[in-house]
Amino acid sequence: MSTGLAKPKKLKLTDYEVFQTLGTGSFGRVKLARNKQTNKYVALKSLKKAEIIRLKQVDHVINENTILGNLQHPFVVTFEGFCQDPRYLYLVLEFVSGGELFTYLRSIGRLDTQHAAFYGAQVASIFEYLHSKNIIYRDLKPENLLIADDGYLKLTDFGFAKVVEGRTYTLCGTPEYLAPEILLNKGHGKAVDWWTLGILIYEMNAGIDPFSDEDPMAIYQKILKGKVKFPKSFDKNAKSLVKHLLVADLSKRYGNLKNGAADVKNHRWFGNLDWNLLTQKKLPVPYKPVVKAPNDTSNFSSYPESDTQSPALKPADDPFLEW
C-alpha cells in the first residue's frame, strides 16, 4: 500500500466461538466472540464481501483496517487482526464492555461540564495522535465512542479514516457533524476533525447537536449559516471552546492554527487537567459502567439474530484472498 503501513495479522476463524450481536452496520454485524485458546472475549466484526464489492468499497475496507492495525493509543480500540471465509471478512477487535457513549448520553440527557470535559479531552488526545500520523478520522459521533469498564473512552469504526498529507475531496461523515468545507467540496484536511469535536462538546453539554433538524438538507443549511445558539445552562468556558472550534474560516479554527492541538488542550475549559495522567488513565473517572463479567453485554442494545447468509465468492472473484 502507498501509505507505508504494515498489513494486519491473519488469524484463524476456527479459533473463535461466536455469540450474540452487539451492533449492526452497512456491511454486516458486530458479535461477541471468545478466543478458544486464550479465553479472551473480543468483538468480531463481519463484513459481507459481496456487498463490499458491489458498492466498490474494497480499497476503502482494506485501508480502514490497515490504518487501525497500525494504531496504538489508550483511547483507540485495539485491532488484533482479521480472518475470512468465502462469504465474509472478519475483523477481530477489542471488546469494550461499557457500550456506546450515545446510549449513555441518551439515558441521562446531558453531561455536567466536568464530565463532558473528561471525554472531550480524550478525543482531543486521539486527534492529536492521529494527525501526527497524517490520519484524519472524519466520523466522530457518540455512536463511535465506546465506554470501557474502567470509565475511559475507546474510539472505534475507522471506516472514513484516511492517510492524507494535504487535502481530500470525499463526501463522508454524519450529517449533523459535517464541517462546512466538506459540504462546499473545497477539499478538506485535519481541520474537519476539530470541527466535529466542537459538535461533540456541544452535544455532551446540551443533550442535542447544534444544527439539529429532521431534514438533512436543513441541517446542511444551518451548518453553512454557522449560527450556534447555546442554552442558558451551557458552561461559559465550554461555550468559548465550541465557538473556537465551530469556525468556518480554517485560518481561525482551533486545532488548525500554528500551535495545532495545543490551542485546544490549553483552553481554559480543560482547566488544570493533567494530560499525562489522562493518557496513563490515572485520573478519577466520572462514570464507570456496570460490568458483571468479561462477557457481559448488558450495556449494548439487543438485536434479533439474522439468518440471511451472504453469497459465497469464488476464489477468482475474491479480492481479499491476496490481502
TrEMBL record:
One of its GO terms (biological process) is adenylate cyclase-activating G protein-coupled receptor signaling pathway. Residues 296-311 have a biased composition (Polar residues). Keywords: ATP-binding, Kinase, Nucleotide-binding, Serine/threonine-protein kinase, Transferase. Residues 16-270 form the Protein kinase domain. The keyword ATP-binding applies. Pfam families: Pkinase. It comes from the Eukaryota. ATP binds at K45. The keyword ATP-binding applies. Residues 271-323 form the AGC-kinase C-terminal domain. Gene3D superfamilies: Phosphorylase Kinase, domain 1, Transferase(Phosphotransferase) domain 1. One of its GO terms (cellular component) is cAMP-dependent protein kinase complex. PROSITE patterns: AGC_KINASE_CTER, PROTEIN_KINASE_ATP, PROTEIN_KINASE_DOM, PROTEIN_KINASE_ST. GO terms for molecular function: ATP binding; cAMP-dependent protein kinase activity. Residues 296-323 are annotated as: Disordered. Belongs to the protein kinase superfamily. This is Chromosome undetermined scaffold_113, whole genome shotgun sequence. It comes from Paramecium tetraurelia.
